[in-house]
Amino acid sequence: IQTRHGIPTAQFRSFTDYNEAIKYIESINHRVVVKASGIAAGKGVLIPETKEETIKAIHQVLVDREFGDAGSEVVIEEYLDGEEVSCLAFSDGKTVVPMPAAQDHKRIFDGDKGPNTGGMGAYCPAPVLTKDLAENILVNVLQKTIDKAAEDGFPYIGVLYAGIMLSHENSKLVPKVLEYNCRFGDPETQAILPLLESDLVDVMLDCVNGTLKSENVKWKAGFSSATVVAASKGYPGTFEKGFTIDGHQDTSESENIFIFHAGTKLQDGQLVTSGGRVLAVTGIGSDLSLALAKAYEGISKIKFEGKHYRNDIGYRALSASAKSS
């Protein structure tokens, strides 16, 4: 749909045959990103730096099947340099109402080091997305995608998630689509929805009934949010489960702190860990610094063996703010 209708994206090719994919890699000289085409729990994107690493990444996806059935097809995409931003929107198949844009942190360690994860934190709204860029994405990506999907015979109703790279071109930031998801994103949603003032059920019903209007989707003005994920030791690799979780009772939404459960379960009446990303803690405040302070206040109270979280969520936005002030 992107290439057919001129929706801005990176150059890409898709392959199901390993040898054909390698032949393509040998024919090009630019850096690429290797993606498992299917759903891979947010971890199916490999970012090699050399041609040798690229060949190894393709082998991991198509031959070793490290991502299972998600790797039955591999997408080899032009590497874009810039800042990534998540742009979600509600749609009733015709009208598109954007949510505040968010940015997340994929790498497991501070400073964006280590392997990719499903997401270690996020913040909203993303300061990098100016009003002009947001309008550009609404018109040329989100609305155009919905319009062209309807023209092609499959009108889309629900939440459309566009992962956008703000690519540096001729000293300007140019939005290009990295990916679509037909759902809310994780952990961006945990940062976005606490800022929604309208009732989410009403908004969803408007989508289903074809009555969506931008004026009926209201957001908390003058507020920011930040989400920090607490993960199990060893994630995104192998990790142990079943550790007792304490401290989650010590926070409340009245303090502008929200806890979202992910890899947890009740065992003999006790909350224990049961996944890689265990809990997400969101704080809201009148600016990003205050929202982050709330999120870290909440996550500091949660205790379980092997708890790991990043200490630098929002660093890009805070750094940019410091430079501009």
Search tags:
single chain; about 325 residues; alpha+beta; 5-stranded antiparallel beta sheet; 4-stranded antiparallel beta sheet; 17 strands; globular
Structural overview:
There is one protein chain. The strands form five sheets. This protein has a five-stranded antiparallel sheet. It has a four-stranded antiparallel sheet with strand order 1-4-2-3, covered by helices on one side. Helix 2 (18-27) packs antiparallel against helix 3. The longest helix is centred in the middle third of the chain and has 21 residues, at 131-151. The protein contains eight helices and 17 strands. With 325 residues, it is α+β, with helices and mostly antiparallel strands. It is globular. Strand 8 (107-109) and strand 9 (113-116) form a beta hairpin.
Entry summary:
With 325 residues, this protein is an alpha+beta fold. It is 27% helix and 30% strand. It has helices spanning 2-5, 18-27, 51-63, 131-151, 188-192, 200-209, 288-301, 315-324; strands at residues 12-15, 32-36, 45-46, 74-78, 82-92, 96-98, 103-104, 107-109, 113-116, 121-124, 157-169, 172-181, 224-231, 257-261, 264-267, 270-273, 277-285.
